[in-house]
Each structure stands twice: as structure tokens, then as C-alpha cells.
User: Which sequence fits this backbone?
């Protein structure tokens, strides 16, 4: 894991205390109190990600009901900006970490595979704010996307074969052009200059 | 060997003939410039004579009157010359690989100018009015309209830094140093004072968008560097305009006052922000107008052009930055206009913009060459050489300094390689020349003009030519092929929302938070006003998806007429992906029945394949069954198929455009559905997913009659028939005013 500076931990701690109303642990309803999140179409998934043991350490499984400050920081650390000088190996590792986080968000039933249903759910959630959502639309898009993954990862399939779902390796391959290590970043440093008064 | 040589010599001779023709007519045209005066009077004479002695003169069957078409004739000739040159460079590819097009065009301009001068005429100079009002706007509009917004907004801080601070630094450094140079006695330039030098600095410092576009377009550099240099060249116009006018005014008064300086700073903000605001206003009005243009689709593109041009001209009225106004107008207008106008209008806009900007670009460079030959030159070795040196030095220093500063704030740091390319890409161009040309006529003007032209030539020729090998040498990242991927789009959106959510959880109102707020504001208020109909509520993912499908459909239609087939990489079909237990209305068919149907249908493919030779897009593949099935049985199968249409893949209806059901995964994929509404059972609501099926195909060379590579899909293959079946429609999941429904019978929209 990457190191976070003391300053950042301090700021995060302040925020943790604020969100949890000075309790020791955060629960889901604490997150639900954040007003800004209400507009977010994937808010349920984001909140779930904080309570997902797989994001805490390598071999975790299942969900928890409440998290302490340590877990909070661990989840946040997935969004660290890359350090200035990184070797290729480190960069690859960071990529895997971040993509693993995304993968866990999609794979809600923890079986290590994003099935078509789960992917459909993702697309539905994304479009859920549009108002005029039809399930069919989301299905179309999800199907097309799934097809693309299948074709990229598994070039040729017998017609009787069934593509179970996106494994983590396929997921990596799918998003290899996606520069995730530079896009999935929150700048912690500026946090103390902005409003923390919610 | 022989045909190649023959064709190349043919091309060469053709080209030479063209050149001769053009030069001849050029000489002819300009010859008339001089003879106009003399012939003018004689014409008057003859006319009056004709009137008075009408009954004496015979009716002229063939007369010659060049004068009244002279101007448009000459303009057309110049444009034709430009076009022939452009064509020529692409026909003879060897030269254009080494030398960028802009260099070749300047060279041609030099030649033409030389020829005109040799015939004793005064070659035309690149008139500043012509340049700023007619030649420059199309290029800028083209650039602004198709500006990639995401990289632009992500790097806007860096771009602004380079454009504003970088240009300022350049101006003062070059101006100051040139003044120092002028103090050297050997240069005999003591008459050039500080203000003139600063004025000169302000003209020569700005990176030119035309040259940058011309050179960078050919080297296909990665998006980040491209947008940095290009964005800088666009946005530094405000600085240039302000400083130019400022120093010009001061040069009159021969003194800088403090108030003047303060006013200058204020004027800078007024010019840039005012320009942007003018552009925004016109953009919004244009978007609003496009909401109603469905009543007359033919004139839609004109609205886009005219509103943008008016934005430019309006900004120029007040001496605001016209370029920034034009960019702002294009950027604001684009998302709404694209949602409103028809697909054909969109294509028209795109192609007209590309066409005009291409012609403009060519003309500018040719005229630069001609003007070089034409203009009065005052060559001063020291001045010119030092100008070139200082331009380079100041650019390098500026880039290094600014990058060191900006890297503190950037996530993706700029490496030394990046810095080098940015510095090296600081090309000067025609804007500098035109600004110099606008100076008041005095001896200094010629001195400046010579230096400016030298710098332009140096940057365009030397830097332009060497940048490509340098890019290769330094292994700078090239532009990635844009493979449009629905997955990447999904994840781009997902990531946006995720990051916004995390920012909200952190309580940090950052980049994403404000972007999200802006998007929401856009969706709830702005889109409702500016986009017609139901498209206003269409989420971005869906419009992306529709656009992608449309593009693939177009490509399919176009490739159908060509002989070549795209190759596919994968044989994955939707059946492999869809869950086995996905709910389908159960249509119990006995296994044996199903097998029989499949066998029969498969056999029929043999027949239809023969018919399909001309439609090279399709390759119905299967193990070749040798059975010959008669026509009658064929038709019976149609019936059965229609009934089976729900469970089995439906044969497509073949009309002029063969139905497209295929998946090829090299660069695009397509999901087509069948409109179920015509099937005898009919469905309450047409659904996308359940009826999705694809045909796996392999490419077949049209001349091959052998068995194509086997399709491993053991299920039936749909066949094309000339008689009716179920119609294949491109699934459009929301209403899309894309192609005009009455024109394109194959596409309907599923409400």
C-alpha cells in the first residue's frame, strides 16, 4: 500500500469524526446523511464499497456493517495520486489495485466474476438518473458491452459455450487503454482549504 | 514495374501540365492588371463608339470582356492553384513524407511569386484584411468546433499558463533583448527604440495555430501534447491582441505611463473575457435556433457557420479577441446543435469546415511564399539572426520554467521529452506576418517584416521538417487509435460519478464536484431549452451508444458497396454471452423438429449463397451441404422460419441495403435486433435484448467460390431473401432524429 502523509491522515480523521458524529465507527446511514451524494446515480455502490472487506486487504471477503477509521483510510488510499517517480512495476501494481477496486464494485456477489446480470445492473444504475430509463436500453448497452469483453478476451468461442462473465484478468485487458492510474485520483492535499462544514 | 513507372510518369506529366496551365493563366491574369488601365479607356471609347455607330458595326458574335469577371476569376484561379498543389502533394507521396505540406506550399508560393515578378508584375501580398477576415476564421472554427473537450478541460490550467504567462515572458524577453542588440553600434539599428522592439516582440512571440495545426496534424503525436501546444496557440491570441494594440498606441506617444500599463492589464481581461462572452452569447443563440431547424433541414449547416462567423466579426468590432470568441461559440454550440440537427447536416457541417479550413490553410501558406518574394525587404544580418536565436531561447526557457511550476499542480507530470516537444512545437506563422504588415509604413516596418518572415521560414521549414524524425527518435508517445469502446465509455462515466461521490464523502469540493454540478445544471435547465424534443433528456451514455451504432451502420452500408470485407477476429455471439436461463417466452419445440428445421435452413444457405455473390459483405458460412433444395421448399421454410422467429434467428429482409446482422470485432461491433412487431404473434413492446442475435461471419474474397471459413455456429444462419420476411431494424433505444426517417427505410426508431 502506498503511504499517506500525516497531514492527509489528519484531515481524513477530521472528516471521519464529522461523518460519524464523533463516534468510533461509521455505518451506512452515516453515509446516507451526506446530501451531495443524493444526486449520485451510483451512490449505493459507492457506499457498499466502503463496507466491502475485499477492499480492506487482499483476501478479505464479505461485508461488514460498520467500519473504523483504519478501514476508511484504506479505502480512501485507493485514490492516491501516483508518486512522482514510479517504476513500471509500481505503476502496474497501482493499476491493478485501482482496477481491483472497480471490479469489486461491479462484482456484487463476490464470486470473482462480473456476470451479465451484474453488468446490466451497473448500466441501469448509471442511467437511473435520466428519468426516462427503460430497462431495455440498459440491457442493450450491457449486452453490447459484454459482447465486446468476450470478444476481446476470448477470441473464439464455440456456439455452445457460455461466457460466464468478466473475470479480473479480462477486466484488466478490457481497460488497458484506460489510463486509470492517472484518472482515478482525488487530491487529498487540498482538502483543508475547502469546506468541511457539512 | 512497367505499369507503375507508366502511371507515375503519367502523373508527373499531368501535374506539369496543370502547373503550366495555372502559371500561364496567372501570368495572363496579372498581365491584365497593367493593361487594364489602358484598355479601360479604349473600352469606353469603343462602347460609346458602338452606341453611336451601331448601325455601322456588325453584331459581334464573339466578344471578349474580361474585366467584369476579373475579381472572381482571379480568386477562383488562386484557389484552384491551391487545390492542385494539395492534390499534387498527395499524388506524389515521396516528398510529403519528408517535408510537411506547409513547407511545400510556401515553396510553391515562392515559385509563383518569382514567376509573377519575373513577368514584371507586382505579385499580390497577403493582405491583412483578407487574412484576418476570410482566411483565418475557417481554420479557427474548424479547430474550435472539433476541439476535444475532455483533454482540453483537464489541462486548461497548463494551457492557460503557457498561453498567457508564456507569451508575456516571450514578449518581454525578446523585446528587451532585441533592444539590447539594437544598441550595438555595428548593427546600425540605433533608431529602433524600446517601444518598437517591444512591439516587435509582441508580434513575433505568439505561437501560431495555423502552423501548429499544419505540422502537428501530420506527426500524430499523443493527445496531451497536441492539446497543450494547440490550446496554447489558440488562447494566446488575447495576449497578442492586447499587447499589440498597447504597444502600437504607446509607440505613437513614445512613452509608457503607469496608467497606460494599468489600463493594459485591465484591457487584457476585457479582451479575453469579452471575447469569450461574445462567443458564448452567439453559441447559445445558435443552439437555440437549431432547435427549430427541423422545419428546414437544408439550411441547418449555414446557421452553424454564420453564427460562428458573426461571433468572430462582432468580437473584432470591439477589438476583442476574435479567436477566443470563435472558439467559445463553437464549443458552446456544439453539443446542443449536434443533438438537434439531422445526421446529414452534421456531416455537411463537418465536411464544409474541413474543406474550408483546408483551402484556407493552403492559401495562407502559398500567399506567404508569394509575399516573401513581393515585399520590400530590409535585410539586416544582425537583427534577423538575433531574432531567430532569441525566439528559440526564450521559448525554451519559458517552457522549462513554466513546466517546473505547473508540475507541482499536475497529476500527470510533463517529462523532459514532453517539454522538448512543446518547446520545439512553438511555430510562428501567418498571424505574425499579418500583424507586422498592419504596422505603419516606415523603414522599421520593412526591417521587422523581413525578420518576421525569416523566423516564420525558420520555424516552419527547419522545425517543421525535423520534428517528425525527432518524435521518432525520442520515441514520444503517439496518438492511440481511437477504438470506440462502449466499455470505456461506461467506465468513463462510472469513474466520473465514483470520483464525485468520493469527493463528496471527503467533503472536498474539487474538480469533479464542480464538473458534476455543471453537468446537472446543464441537464436540468440548459438542455431543456436548447435541445428539441425528447433528445433533451437523453443521457450521454445512450447518445454515445446510438452514435456508435449509427456510425457502424454507416460503415456497413458503405463497405457493402466496396468489394472488401472487413476481417473479424472473434466468433463470439450474443448467445455465448446471454445467460442460459434468461427468460424467453417458452415456445416448446421438440428437439427433433428443431434439428430438422436447422438442417433445412442450413441447406438453403447453399442456394442463397450463390445469389449473394455481389453482396460481399455477407458470408454465410457453414459446412457446405450439397443438398439442392427446390424453390418451393425454400418458400415453405420461410413460413416456418417466421413462426420460429421468436426462438431462432430471424432471416432478414433484403432490400437495397442488405440487412446487417453481423459482428466483427476488429474495431467495431454491432448489435442489431429485430423488430418483432411484424411477427404473427406480435409483442406488446418490442424488446431489445431478447431478440438480439448476431451472425458470425468470416470474410470472403469476392472472387473466391470455395467454402469460406466455417462458421462454428451450429445454429441456423439467417438467409437473405428477396422476398419479405421480418424486417431488420437497427435498434434505437430512444428516439433519435438521426437519419431522416423517410429517407432511410431500414431504420425506424423504437419508441
Assistant:
Amino acid at each position: 500500500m502506498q503511504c499517506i502523509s500525516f497531514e492527509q491522515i489528519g484531515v481524513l480523521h477530521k472528516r471521519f469524526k464529522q461523518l460519524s458524529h464523533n463516534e468510533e465507527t461509521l455505518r451506512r446511514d452515516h453515509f446516507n446523511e451526506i446530501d451531495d451524494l443524493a444526486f449520485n446515480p451510483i451512490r449505493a455502490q459507492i457506499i457498499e464499497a466502503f463496507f466491502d472487506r475485499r477492499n480492506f486487504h487482499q483476501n478479505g471477503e464479505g461485508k461488514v456493517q460498520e467500519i473504523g477509521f483504519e478501514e476508511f483510510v484504506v479505502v480512501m488510499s485507493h485514490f492516491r495520486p501516483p508518486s512522482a517517480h514510479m517504476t513500471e512495476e509500481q505503476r502496474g501494481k497501482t493499476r491493478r489495485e485501482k482496477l481491483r477496486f472497480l471490479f469489486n464494485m461491479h462484482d456484487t456477489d463476490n464470486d470473482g466474476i462480473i456476470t451479465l446480470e451484474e453488468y446490466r445492473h451497473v448500466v441501469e444504475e448509471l442511467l437511473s438518473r435520466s428519468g426516462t430509463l427503460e430497462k431495455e436500453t440498459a440491457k442493450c448497452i450491457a449486452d453490447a458491452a459484454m459482447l465486446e469483453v468476450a470478444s476481446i478476451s476470448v477470441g473464439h468461442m464455440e456456439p455452445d459455450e457460455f461466457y460466464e462473465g468478466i473475470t479480473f484478468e479480462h477486466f484488466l485487458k478490457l481497460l488497458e487503454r484506460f489510463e486509470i492510474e492517472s484518472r482515478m485520483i482525488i487530491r487529498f492535499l487540498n482538502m483543508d482549504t475547502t469546506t468541511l462544514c457539512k | 514495374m512497367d505499369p507503375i513507372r507508366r502511371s507515375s510518369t503519367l502523373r508527373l506529366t499531368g501535374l506539369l501540365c496543370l502547373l503550366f496551365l495555372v502559371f500561364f493563366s496567372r501570368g495572363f491574369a496579372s498581365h491584365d492588371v497593367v493593361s487594364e488601365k489602358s484598355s479601360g479607356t479604349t473600352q469606353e471609347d469603343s462602347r460609346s463608339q458602338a452606341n453611336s455607330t451601331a448601325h455601322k458595326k456588325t453584331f459581334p458574335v464573339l466578344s471578349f470582356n474580361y474585366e467584369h469577371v476579373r475579381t472572381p476569376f482571379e480568386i477562383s484561379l488562386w484557389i484552384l492553384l491551391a487545390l492542385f498543389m494539395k492534390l499534387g502533394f498527395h499524388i506524389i507521396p515521396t516528398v510529403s513524407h519528408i517535408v510537411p505540406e506547409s513547407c511545400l506550399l510556401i515553396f510553391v508560393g515562392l515559385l509563383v511569386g518569382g514567376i509573377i515578378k519575373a513577368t514584371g508584375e507586382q505579385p499580390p501580398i497577403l493582405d491583412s484584411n483578407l487574412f484576418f477576415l476570410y482566411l483565418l476564421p475557417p481554420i479557427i472554427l474548424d479547430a474550435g468546433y472539433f476541439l476535444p473537450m475532455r483533454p482540453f478541460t483537464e489541462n486548461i490550467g497548463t494551457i492557460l499558463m503557457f498561453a498567457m504567462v508564456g507569451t508575456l515572458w516571450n514578449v518581454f524577453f525578446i523585446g528587451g533583448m532585441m533592444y539590447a542588440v539594437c544598441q550595438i553600434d555595428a548593427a546600425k539599428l540605433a533608431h529602433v527604440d524600446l517601444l518598437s522592439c517591444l512591439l516587435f516582440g509582441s508580434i513575433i512571440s505568439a505561437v501560431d495555430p495555423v502552423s501548429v495545426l499544419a505540422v502537428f496534424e501530420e506527426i500524430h503525436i499523443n493527445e496531451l501534447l497536441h492539446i497543450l501546444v494547440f490550446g496554447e496557440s489558440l488562447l494566446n491570441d488575447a495576449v497578442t491582441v492586447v499587447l499589440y494594440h498597447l504597444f502600437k498606441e504607446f509607440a505613437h506617444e513614445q512613452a509608457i505611463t503607469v496608467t497606460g500599463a494599468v489600463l493594459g492589464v485591465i484591457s487584457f481581461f476585457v479582451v479575453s473575457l469579452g471575447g469569450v462572452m461574445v462567443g458564448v452569447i452567439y453559441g447559445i443563440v445558435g443552439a437555440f435556433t437549431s432547435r427549430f431547424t427541423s422545419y428546414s433541414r437544408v439550411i441547418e449547416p449555414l446557421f452553424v457557420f454564420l453564427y460562428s462567423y458573426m461571433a468572430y466579426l462582432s468580437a473584432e468590432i470591439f477589438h476583442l479577441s476574435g479567436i477566443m470568441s470563435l472558439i467559445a461559440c463553437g464549443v458552446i454550440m456544439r453539443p446542443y446543435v449536434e443533438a438537434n440537427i439531422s445526421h446529414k447536416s452534421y456531416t455537411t457541417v463537418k465536411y464544409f469546415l474541413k474543406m474550408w479550413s483546408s483551402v484556407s490553410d493552403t492559401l495562407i501558406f502559398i500567399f506567404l511564399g508569394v509575399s516573401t518574394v513581393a515585399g520590400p525587404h530590409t535585410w539586416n544580418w544582425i537583427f534577423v539572426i538575433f531574432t531567430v536565436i532569441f525566439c528559440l531561447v526564450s521559448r525554451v526557457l519559458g517552457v522549462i520554467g513554466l513546466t517546473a511550476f505547473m508540475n507541482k499542480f499536475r497529476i500527470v507530470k510533463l517529462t523532459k521529452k514532453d517539454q522538448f516537444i512543446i518547446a520545439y512545437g512553438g511555430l510562428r506563422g501567418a498571424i505574425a506576418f499579418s500583424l507586422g504588415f498592419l504596422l505603419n509604413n516606415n523603414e522599421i516596418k520593412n526591417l521587422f517584416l523581413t525578420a518576421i518572415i525569416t523566423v516564420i521560414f525558420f520555424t516552419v521549414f527547419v522545425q517543421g521538417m525535423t520534428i517528425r524524425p525527432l518524435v521518432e527518435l525520442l520515441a514520444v508517445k503517439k496518438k492511440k487509435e481511437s477504438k470506440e469502446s462502449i466499455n470505456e465509455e461506461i467506465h468513463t462515466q462510472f469513474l466520473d460519478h465514483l470520483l464525485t461521490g468520493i469527493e463528496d464523502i471527503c467533503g472536498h469540493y474539487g474538480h469533479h464536484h464542480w464538473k458534476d454540478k455543471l453537468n446537472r445544471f446543464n441537464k436540468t435547465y440548459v438542455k431543456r431549452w436548447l435541445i428539441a424534443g425528447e433528445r433533451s433528456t437523453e443521457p450521454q451514455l445512450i447518445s454515445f451508444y446510438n452514435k456508435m451504432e449509427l456510425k457502424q451502420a454507416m460503415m456497413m452500408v458503405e463497405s457493402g458497396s466496396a468489394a472488401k470485407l472487413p476481417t473479424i477476429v472473434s466468433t463470439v455471439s450474443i448467445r455465448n454471452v446471454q445467460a442460459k436461463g434468461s427468460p424467453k417466452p417458452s415456445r416448446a419445440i421438440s428437439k427433433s423438429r428443431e434439428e430438422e428445421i436447422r438442417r433445412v435452413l442450413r441447406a438453403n444457405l447453399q442456394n442463397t449463397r450463390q445469389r449473394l455473390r455481389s453482396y460481399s459483405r455477407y458470408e454465410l458460412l457453414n459446412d457446405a451441404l450439397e443438398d439442392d433444395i427446390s424453390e418451393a421448399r425454400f418458400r415453405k421454410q420461410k413460413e416456418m422460419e417466421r413462426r420460429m422467429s421468436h426462438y431462432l434467428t430471424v432471416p432478414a429482409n433484403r432490400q437495397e441495403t442488405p440487412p446487417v446482422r453481423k459482428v466483427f470485432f476488429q474495431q467495431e461491433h454491432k448489435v442489431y435486433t429485430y423488430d418483432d412487431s411484424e411477427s404473427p404473434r406480435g409483442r406488446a413492446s418490442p424488446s431489445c435484448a431478447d431478440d438480439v442475435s448476431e451472425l458470425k461471419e468470416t470474410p470472403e474474397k469476392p472472387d473466391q467460390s470455395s467454402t469460406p471459413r466455417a462458421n462454428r455456429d451450429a445454429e441456423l444462419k439467417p438467409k437473405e431473401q428477396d422476398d419479405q420476411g421480418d424486417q431488420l431494424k437497427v435498434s434505437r433505444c430512444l428516439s433519435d432524429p438521426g437519419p431522416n426517417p423517410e429517407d432511410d427505410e431500414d431504420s425506424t426508431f423504437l419508441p
Summary: Residues 190-198 of chain A have pLDDT under 50 and may be disordered. Chain A is about 50% helix and 0% strand.
